[in-house]
Amino acid sequence: MEEIEFILDSTKESMTGSIAHLEKEFLNIRAGKASPQMLGSVFVDYYGSQTPLSQVSNVNTPDARTITIQPYEKSMLQTIEKAIMVANLGFNPMNNGENIIISVPPLTEERRRDLVKQAKAEAEDAKISIRNARKDANTEIKKLEKEGTSEDICKSAEEDIQKLTDGFIRKVDEHLATKEAEIMKV
């Protein structure tokens, strides 16, 4: 019985992790207004090691259409500018000798559709991860059943796992619907 509780808890934890990862990925998908998270995937070559942009500079959004990046060391300006270009986020950084300024262009209809596709792909990855957690849990329960745990207890546990899975899949769909509305809002 304790084994089944453990399986249920670890499955729930794994599924919660999938949702957390999805939320993090959704932050990187921009929806019209500028935010420092848009540059979350940018890594800078800092003395030979790949370092997140946020660790070598101060990233701010003075208004809804602008991101400013103030490096902690002026010598990093060109390196940061190059890293933003390499990240291929569709931004055109401008270097004024002190800061790097990025004007966030308004999204075109086509770009919005691409972002929605990207969001749907991330949501699908989250669903696959949740289903894999269900599959792993069911495999563990089948092992317990072979080892002598009663069939009724195992069936009940499988039903609980399915309910858990359905609930988390619904959460993914809700997150996707919210993100889609946010992206398509002009």
Give a brief rundown of this model:
This protein has 5 helices and 6 strands.
Q: How would you describe this structure to a colleague?
A:
This protein is an alpha+beta fold and 186 residues long. It is 61% helix and 15% strand. It has helices at 2-28, 53-56, 77-86, 109-146, 151-184, and strands spanning 43-46, 49-52, 57-63, 66-71, 94-95, 100-103. The strands form two sheets. Strands 3-4-6-5 form a four-stranded antiparallel beta sheet. Strands 1-2 form a two-stranded antiparallel ribbon. A hairpin with a 2-residue loop joins β3 and β4. α4 (109-146) runs antiparallel to α5. The model has no long low-confidence stretch (mean pLDDT 88).
Would you list the SSEs in sequence order as H and E? HEEHEEHEEHH
What's the arrangement of strands in the largest beta sheet?
3-4-6-5
Helicity, as a percent range: 55-70%
- Percent of residues in beta strands: 5-15%
Overall spatial form: elongated
Query: What class, by secondary structure content?
Result: alpha+beta
Number of continuous helical runs = 5
Largest beta-sheet characterization: 4 strands, antiparallel
Q: How many DSSP-defined strands? A: 6
What gap, in angstroms, lies between the N and C termini? Answer: 53 Å
Salient structural properties:
alpha+beta; 5 helices; single chain; two-stranded antiparallel ribbon; 15% strand; 186 residues; 4-stranded antiparallel sheet
Summarize the helices and strands and which ones pair or pack.
Blueprint: H1 2-28, E1 43-46, E2 49-52, H2 53-56, E3 57-63, E4 66-71, H3 77-86, E5 94-95, E6 100-103, H4 109-146, H5 151-184
Antiparallel strand pairs: 1-2, 3-4, 4-6, 5-6
